[in-house]
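Fold these two proteins, one after the other.
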Amino acid sequence: MDQIQCIRLFRRVAEAKSFSAVAPEFGLTQPMVSKRIAWLEAELGVTLLRRSTRGIELTTEGQKLFRNGGHALDELDAVLSAVKNEKLQLSGVLRVTASLAFSRLIIAPLLEELTAQNPELRLQFTLSDGYVDMVEKNIDLAFRIGDLPDSSLKAIRIGMSHRSLYASEGYLKKFGTPKTLEDLSAHRCLYYNRIAEQPAWPLTDGKNKRVSFAFRPVLESDGSELIRESVINGLGVALLPTWMITDRQDSKKVRAIMQNFSPTPSPIYAVTTGARELSAKQRLVIDYFRKCFEKDEQLNLRA
């Protein structure tokens, strides 16, 4: 068997802590993955992985191979990439993850030009409003908005997400336009509950002093698209990224209100796993979107 390929296989199993999850990445079945790991262990004369009630764990020898062998593979990949021409570096699959709304409204309109400029590049998107484990899912690049608690990830800030309170013209005509936080507390508020478990918006008091505005929502959801559509349809008031109200037809129906109470902008990051140097494909896509965002006032780093 190919020892280097088996080490690559071992590394992914150690990262994902699963034989079955890794098997499709290599075009193998789970028994074939187990067989190749067993062959590698026999070649080295050590046990690398141990199954337990908590899943797959690395032995001391396995930890050493994972740490040192991983660095060696990265160096080997860097050398191989260096001897390839740029066209080859920019071909193949790049696995990307992002939220549903951001992908539909921001990323999708920009993909035609990106793929036209790089016809050999293939993109595979995993879309979710929830957290996607980049290591477990073997993701190359993630677009994430807001603070990043996981310090093992490498984050490059490529834009800013501005937010405002929005309500439809029909709703405001029926219930009136709030001017103060006290006014707002009497309105029908819609809550995207991935912000925090307890319904509250990180607003300002109108004088740049941060306040947490707590309320009882008439609707809450972990899906930002549902909140957006509910605002457009006149159900109530919601705190939304300004980039979510980009369609001309929608912007005629919906209006930003109490803009001096809007929260501070949140950074938009291009995220990769921390240990490896950026590949040519990762650099290409990150630079492309950063340049696109620089032209967009709603996403501009300096806006």
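Now the second one:
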Amino acid sequence: MSEAIRLLEQRIAHLELELSALVKQSPACQELLTVPGIGLLTATAMVAATSGEVGHYRDARHFASWFGLTPKEFSSGSTRRLGRISKRGDRYLRMLLTHGARAVLRSAVVAKQAGRQVDGLKDWALRVQSRTNHNKAACALANKLARICYAVLRDHEPYGKLSVREENRKTNRTAYAVAI
């Protein structure tokens, strides 16, 4: 039994090396790896599923709903009711995004307990988790990670540069509003 486990571990290590070589050839995978919670398997699976292009999705919400990460809506008139996530879509990618979100939540909790600074995404995740249970927070964060992946693939820029660009946009809007 231990020999079978050793052989499986060798095969997994070999496959990880092949995936790492594939990532080095794909700029889209390299950009996705900059997003917290997105690892080797998630990046390669997402690029394989989308070919690295997200232009055919109308917006980030439609991209996230393609994974089944958006809540079902039971609305009528001005009353808006959101239910559980639809779970329609790619089960494998939804599972990878959810596990990545759980990892981000765990690292945020550990960083907070150690007194270290947490970035905006982790702070948002911790605030969601404080309002609701861990599983709902993980699903909400997985939805947010899918939307961030959409922005990364759309703009062809790493995650850190996207937040700088958003800050510049906010600053420009503020300067424009003050000028008026």
